[in-house]
Amino acid sequence: MESLINIVLLTLLAVVTVGIVFQRNLFAVVVLAGIYSFLMASVLIVLDAVDVAMTEASVGAGVSTVLLLGTLHLVKSIEYPSRRSALVPMLVAGATGAALVWATFGLSPFGAADTPIHTHVAPKYLADSVRETHVPNVVTSTLADYRGYDTLGETTVIFTAGIGVLLLLKGRRRRNQAGGERRKMGTTA
Amino acid sequence: MKFDLILRIGTKLLLPFILLFALYVQFHGEFGPGGGFQAGVITAGMVILYAIVFGVKAAKRIAPQALVERMVPLGVLIFVATGVAGLALGSNFLDYSRLAADPPHGHLLGIFAVELGVLVTVAATMTAIFYAFVERGR
Predict the structure, then answer these.
(1) Please, which residues have CB within 8 angstroms of residue A178's CB and are 6 or more apart in sequence?
(2) Crossing angle of the two packed helices B5-27 and B36-54, in degrees rounded to 10
(3) Domain count within chain B
(4) Given this model, what pLDDT does residue A188 score?
């Protein structure tokens, strides 16, 4: 049953991806990207990663879609066909994809419990988390406590990204306004 | 832009429940899935939904832009302050053991404070970016 659900979800993911590649209407691309995120969230639920699924659904399908629609509000919603040949980008993408697929052969079998990431500190977190932190959800205690440093970094990344976007969007506007005013003054003089 | 009645009333009905769900995700993150990040995004989603249906002016009355933009660094500061508090009490940076009388409760308190910081920064960043996009479009 689980493999059937996986096959359906992954097939839909592939279909949506092909749709995104061939679609020239950017509004449709944004909607398809939202659908992709929801499918990805479903895949993550099947993998029992509910915390990540929740993030994917709220960030990927929710806020990202709104922000991309906000971008479409500023630009034209049709993607113009590129004048350059698509050969080089296609080669680069194909080579990267092939390298990634090749790299998956080096991964340990899916779900194997004796891999380095599962034998290093994870057993300690799983065994001691409730006693040490009184938090039943080990994901929360790992993220906010054992790995608090990483989460601080992530929060700082969001802060930095937010400040960057705000500076880009607002800085340009102020310069445009100043330019407009100068132009206005020029015409009155 | 005028939307029809059903959309407006429906949104009005939904808003408190979205906020309640965000708070649930935030404070129930210790027991179930969720935490500051997800709760922050859901909170921002509430403001954005309100802004889409009722206009940005109305949204800026409930979440003023100046406040939102100040909250972006505030969350990171809450996070860092929690870490420094541990340092000041004689343990390591971001070690919550000494924040309360006994270590487990200290950890509980520390996790709460840190998740609050994440919530503030994430919610504010998403909302601020949305406001910036809307302003550019004018």
Answers:
(1) none
(2) 170
(3) 1
(4) 40
Which tokens is B18 given? 């979205």
Residue-wise pLDDT tens digits, A145-171: 888 899 999 999 999 999 999 998 887
Which of the 8 DSSP states describes residue B95?
-
* Token pair listed for A8: 């359906």
- B35, B41, B75: residue with CB nearest A140: B35
Q: Which residues pair with A25 in a beta bridge?
A: A78
Q: Quick one: which of B18, B13, B14, B38 has its CA closest to B26?
A: B38
Contact A63, A10 (CB under 8 A): no
Which residue from A134, A159, A165 is facing B107, i.e. has the nearest CB? A134
Q: Is ipTM strictly over 0.90?
A: no
Provide the shortest C-alpha distance from residue A65 to chain B (in Å).
11
Residue with tokens 């929060």: A155
Percent of chain B whose pLDDT exceeds 90? 54
CB of A173 within 8 A of CB of A181? Answer: no
Say what percent of chain B tops pLDDT 70: 96
pLDDT given for residue A174 in this prediction:
55
Which of B99, B34, B5 minimizes the C-alpha distance to A55? B34
Residues of B in contact with A74 (CB under 8 A): 133, 136-137
What is the model's pTM?
0.83
